[in-house]
Amino acid sequence: MEYKKQNNYFRTALLLAVFSALGPFTVDMYLSSLPEMMNDFNTTASLIQASLTASLLGLGLGQLVAGPLSDVHGRRKPLLISMLLYFLVSIACAFAPNIGMFIVLRFFQGFVASAGLVISRAIVRDCYSGVEMVKFMALLTMISNVAPLISPTAGSAVTTFTSWIGVFIFLGILGLILTGIATWGIKESLHAEQRVPSNFKELLRNYSSLIRDRSFMGYALVNGILFSGVFAYVSGTPFIYQNMYDISPQLFSVLFALNGLGIILGSQLVKWLSEKMDEHRIFRIGLLIAFITTALILIIVLIHGSFITLFLAIFLFAVAIGIIAPVSFTLAMESQGHIAGSAAAVLGSLQFALGAITSPLVGIAGEDSAVPFGITIFMTSILAVIFYITLVRRSSAISRNM
């Protein structure tokens, strides 16, 4: 009986992780095809890169729509419609007639893909709470973080026997498979009596209540700001590793994957630590590790330290993210069961919005300087600590005094 329960537990996490993985696959899978696409569309590198920005923007904004819709109509119906639309938009991307239309379609592809990210998290809140939610989110984080490791490789594999068009046909087929999973594999987790009224005023009221909730916004901002440090890492390290430390593209891919394993390791530490201490203490441990490691990263780039020390510091920062991500989600969502979709939307959108700010900052001094990267990633930790103290800790102190 216990084995059956564990098996069902893992199956649920695997199904939800597949929907969460749609974001990384949408963003990363075509990266190796960018030079080919620039030639095919007869356009500039900046316009091709704009298609990446458009998909990230769609992923961020789409969550703000998909989350509340799932609070009104339940989780399954919006998820099903979004995956069907993802299939259609992905196929349209494959046959876009020009770069302008491709950029527009990429925005909509990210927009509908966002439903997989936000609704899967809302389902977790519907089904779990407390320590169980911490453990489940740790498992979900571990499985989900396999996607960024394999999506660039999967894209390269597809383009070995076809053009970039095949990548988007593959994504379309993936959307069709997810439509089937949403139809037959996902059960409705938000019953009719638990849903919120369908009107715009109620939507604004829900978002307003979330913004006014100091504890929720504290955890959401800490999570979003630290995750923006991951975007800074993704944007900065290809140039730092290869231009400044002469790392080959092949070795860079391996090191990139190892940092993904760091996030997975952190999420597994959460499962182990949750048996020994409460989630608030685990969160503080993760925040402390993030602060120390980002300070080390800044020092290393300022003195142009050895590559191995820089890599180890970044790896430990990835471990810290793996600890903070599932715990901050649990603590933020604990009291938001009635509007879990909207709450998950705020959490997810903040990551992409703040990541859009940090990504360009790392390159402001050119391709041969790592200083902006070091300053940016350290500032994410400083701001995270400030928001934790001013919002989360102060909110807890006010609650105790009342």
From TrEMBL:
Similarity annotation: Belongs to the major facilitator superfamily. Bcr/CmlA family.
InterPro entries tied to this protein: Efflux_drug-R_Bcr/CmlA (IPR004812), MFS (IPR011701), MFS_dom (IPR020846), MFS_trans_sf (IPR036259)
Lineage: Bacteria, Bacillati, Bacillota, Bacilli, Bacillales
The keyword Zinc is assigned to this record: no
Listed SUPFAM superfamilies: MFS general substrate transporter
Subcellular localization, as worded in the UniProt entry: Cell membrane
Top-level taxon of the source organism: Bacteria
Membrane topology of the entry: Multi-pass membrane protein
Transmembrane annotation, as ranges: 9-27, 47-66, 78-97, 103-124, 136-158, 164-186, 216-241, 247-270, 282-304, 310-332, 344-365, 371-392
Entry keyword set: Cell membrane, Membrane, Transmembrane, Transmembrane helix, Transport
Protein name per the record: Bcr/CflA family efflux transporter
Pfam families tied to this protein: MFS_1
